[in-house]
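Hi support team,

I've been running sequence recovery on a batch of backbones for a student project. Most finish fine, but this one hangs at about 90% for roughly twenty minutes before it completes. I'm not sure whether the input is malformed or the queue is just slow. I've pasted the structure tokens below so you can try to reproduce it. Let me know if you need the job ID as well.

Thanks,
M.K.
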């Protein structure tokens, strides 16, 4: 799937899918009973109702974005101060950040 993502100009970020189908995308409550059926999600805490796959996909997207943000912050911290100045002496090309797991 990585070549497909790259050909579409997208970044592929591996996310641990554990409990994404049991966790409420609205309030974060995670229990087995939230998953009413294969297709239905109903949060026992906040009463959020959604298609189970859509709810899980939302959780996976948020986890991927959080991993990307952490990687970008770490890369910024690793960049020497002179390169991070608000008014660079010479324009530098942007660095691409890819987070991959397996």
């Amino acid at each position: 799937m990585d070549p497909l993502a790259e050909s579409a100009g997208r970044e592929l970020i591996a996310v641990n899918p554990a409990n994404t189908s049991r966790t409420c995308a609205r309030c974060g409550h995670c229990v087995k009973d939230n998953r009413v059926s294969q297709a239905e999600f109903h949060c026992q805490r906040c009463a959020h109702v959604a298609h189970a796959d859509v709810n899980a996909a939302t959780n996976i997207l948020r986890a991927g974005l959080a991993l990307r943000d952490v990687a970008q912050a770490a890369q910024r911290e690793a960049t020497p101060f002179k390169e991070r100045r608000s008014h660079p002496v010479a324009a530098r090309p942007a660095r691409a950040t890819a987070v991959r797991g397996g």
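--
Follow-up from support: It reproduced on our side and the slowdown came from queue contention, not your input. The longest helix spans residues 52-78. No action needed from you.
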